[in-house]
Amino acid sequence: MTIQKLLIANRGEIALRIHRACHELGIKTVAVHSTADADAMHVRLADEAVCIGPPPAKDSYLNVANIISAAEITHADAVHPGYGFLSENAQFAEIVESHNLIWVGPKPEHIRIMGDKIEAKNTAAKLGLPLVPGSPGPLHSVDEAKLIAREIGYPVLVKAASGGGGRGMKVVPSEDQLESLMGQASSEANAAFGDPTVYMEKYLGDPRHIEFQVFGDGNGKAIHLGERDCSIQRRHQKVIEEAPSPVISADQRAEMGALVAQAMAEMGYRGAGTIEFLYEDGKFYFIEMNTRLQVEHPVTELISDIDLVAEQIRVAQGDGLSVTQSQVQLHGHAIECRINAEDPQTFAPSPGLVKNYVAPGGMHVRVDSGLYAGYKVPPYYDSMIGKLIVYGIDRESCIRRLKRALEEFVVEGMKTTVPLHQRIIATDAFKTGDYTIKWLERWLDESP
Ligand code: ADP
């Protein structure tokens, strides 16, 4: 079935990104929004808009009944969830499908499996992906945990099975602290996710975060589009992402890519997915799979020339993948900076009225943002106000172009992280690509 009208169940830059792909494909769009987002760019551009509730996300962007009603009254025939909010909610996917709407996302059963990190690890192991050494399943008692920790060696990491955003995660340096930290991780997990289940992993000292973009047609065909390096992180949140990774060779990419694509083919995975690994001493360790589009998907688009949202829509309406693995030609280099409305030193949120806005432009410079002069950034949601994504024929020219583009970026009326990005990309560590997931925090501590 060909999608005629698609409801975008999200907000901000990703809602605009989805709208753009739809209009290029001749698909009409329906924006749903909270009262706080009535003036948002994607709401202005969409063919139709429906207000689905007050500012708190639980009453609007997470309000399943209102979103489904909006689809029904506008006669939309598909729903794209974007990232965050309901994008990895298997029950929502099922509800969408049971209303005879096309769900632009993976099969609900795969969302469910990968949403439970223990089940995800077991599935990954069965599919032949390398894991971080750890407990074979949930931890049932402190005594059991002690035995496993002795075997894998301290420090260990206790993680929430339903975790996300780095919550419910505790590093345990030695046995005497295991009981109390395990208790803390479990109660934090219960408070945040309503599930106290925790498991254990070896704590890797200084890894990189490297993830593979995969795509499946749902019928046993799957491809990979290379990796992204997302090691520039603060508090487990990605700040800068790049593709390809500065430390992965073409052989490693081909080998790991084939492994993840094969795993997705065996699963019968449908749509876009990301397989996240930690990478240390030349080895990959699976940590989780995200069954949705990622914030950092544009860096992959720039080096593959594939529109990932258009590809999601193709697959969702049953047209299959647009390319085979051998047709995928990765080239050049791309870097993304997440621009947040935050103080670049203290990271305090800085929402408010945009007094002036000038986005950078020129060759190979892309800005995904719903910002415009006169727009008021609401305080209720995530502080990311846009993404700057730059392409170059190689990493060095990409960094030079990024520096030039950041110089042009003007947002008046609030603090942004543009100056932080300017400082990061000027460091030797960034220029040489010699950084790990610990680097940014260490550098911030040392260079106030
Ligand atoms: P979440 O879903 O909460 O984001 P992840 O499992 O994706 O949790 O881990 C988030 C981040 O935590 C990783 O990008 C990495 O920085 C760190 N991390 C996770 N597992 C380990 C580990 N075993 N050793 C060291 N760091 C880890």
Q: What would you note in describing this structure?
A:
The chain has 448 residues and is of the alpha+beta class. It is 34% helix and 26% strand. Strands 13-12-9-10-11-14-19-17 form an eight-stranded antiparallel β-sheet, with helices on both faces. The chain has a five-stranded parallel β-sheet with strand order 3-2-1-4-5. It has a three-stranded antiparallel β-sheet with strand order 7-6-8, with helices on one face. The chain is globular, with a radius of gyration of 21 Å. The mean pLDDT is 97. Bound molecules: adenosine-5'-diphosphate (ADP). Adenosine-5'-diphosphate binds next to strand 8, strand 12 and strand 13.
Describe the structure concisely for a colleague.
It is an enzyme of class 6 (ligase). This protein has 448 residues and is of the alpha+beta class.
